[in-house]
Amino acid sequence: MSNKECFSFHQGHHLHHTKIDQFDQKITPIDISHVMGSAFLVTSNGVTQFWFHHNPQRLLDALTVSENEGITATEDKKFLFVNTGIKVESFHMSQDSLSDCIHMNEKTIKRPEVIAIVKQLHAENIKKLNERGINA
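RE: above sequence
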């Protein structure tokens, strides 16, 4: 589990704008409750299973202010949406154990050109999501 310094776009981590571009799944309402750590218990279409997210506090914060009937997910169970009444928070979920967060390591930090490229790409992705009304 980590915070915004994670650069991973694997399931359970950040949501990449291309994933949103490709998604054409039906949305279904879900019930969700926090179990512990990164684990959440989710019921969708009568099936209950564990889902995981690397930043559980962000998800908990969104759930706390969600609208009634405002929690939905795609049928493929990859994306979870929480309507807060002001914006829709989006989460890239995992039904498997989470991979480790990707952080800048000491070797990478010594290469400023790599850091600049990664930060630029990350900022562009966030901008594209925000333009679509998705808080990232």
